[in-house]
Amino acid sequence: xxxxxxxxxxxxxxxxxxxxxxxxxxxxxxxxxxxxxxxxxxxxxxxxxxxxxxxxxxxxxxxxxxxxxxxxxxxxxxxxxxxxxxxxxxxxxxxxxxxxxxxxxxxxxxxxxxxxxxxxxxxxxxxxxxxxxxxxxxxxxxxxxxxxxxxx
Length: 152
Hints:
This protein has five helices and four strands, in the order αααβαββαβ. The chain folds into two domains: 5-45, Winged helix-like DNA-binding domain superfamily/Winged helix DNA-binding domain (Arc Repressor Mutant, subunit A, Orthogonal Bundle), CATH 1.10.10; 58-139, 2-Layer Sandwich (Alpha-Beta Plaits), CATH 3.30.70.920. Helix 2 (22-29) packs across helix 3 (33-45). The protein is an alpha+beta fold. A hairpin with a 6-residue loop joins strand 2 and strand 3.
């Protein structure tokens, strides 16, 4: 899909501040409000803008532990893949799940209140999925970059 310079300006601005008013957005990109709104709606309709989200401070909502977990499955067949994916969708604390290449099959991003609740989640939910073979956890100690903006 072709994205022109004005569309890029809109996307960059909305990634920084999704709550910006259309009037303010139009001033920042140098268009009048009506065509600005039309372009934003077109970007939404085309699926380039897939949603608007609030970024939460995990520690302030009681999620003090973040981890990445590499998961290996017992067997690499469609049934096991589908089973794992279906079960993972129901685990609220798993905020990302990616099918990967390399030494594991999936990488998960998990948030939890503390190490104890993280351990309980791994033991009672993830490791209990029938197709799960092994888990390798990597606890995030510090985050130096957490940019959700896509480069344009």
